[in-house]
Amino acid sequence: MRTKAGKLSLALILTGVLLAGCGNSGNNASGSGSAIGESSAAPSAAPSAAPSAAPSAAASAAPAAGEKVKIVFSQGADQTDGTKKLVAAFEAKHPDIDVEVREFPNDSSQMHDQLLTILSGQSSEIDVLNLDVTWPAEFAQAGFLLPLDRYIEQDGINTSEYLKGGIEAGYYNGQQWAFPRYNNAGLLYYRTDLVKKVPTTWDELLKQAEQLKGQGGTKYGFVTQGKQYEGLAVGFTELVNAYGGKIIDDQGNVVVNSPEALKGLKKLIEIQTSKAVPSNLNTFTEKETLTAFIEGDAVFARHWPALYAQANDPKVSKIVGKVGIAPLPAGDARSAAALGGWLGAISKYSEHPKEAWEFLKFLISEEGEKIVAINNTQTPTYLKLFDDPEVQKASPLFASHDFVNGLGSAVPRTITPQYAKISGLIQVEVSKAIAGQQTAEQALTNLETQIKAVVSQ
Question: Can you tell me the distance from the alpha carbon of 450 to that of 266, in angstroms, rounded to the nearest whole number?
Answer without folding.
Answer: 20
